Amino acid sequence: MARAHLSHRNGGWRLFVALPVGRNWPTRYFAGPAVPTVQERSQALTELNYALTEGAEWSWTEDREQVDDPASPVILIAVAPVVSILGGAS
Fold first, then answer.
1. What pLDDT is attached to residue 88?
2. Model-level pTM?
3. Is the dihedral of CA 80, 19, 35, 7 positive or negative?
């Protein structure tokens, strides 16, 4: 199953769909520090020909830029299961 990932780095947000094969993943960027709304994320997924699976929600977690440094800036990461809206394999 494909998963959409949303993360904040370098002052903006990156949404991409991680596919089981290849590295050329569908990607959309959002400028600015504000978290993209659910509607903005949904629209971006549609533009990438994906949609959240039925009943799916975004799951949030955090990480650090420097894993071993507790003072390192926090990186927010969201993940959600998605399906292709083109009817092909995800």
1. 56
2. 0.86
3. positive
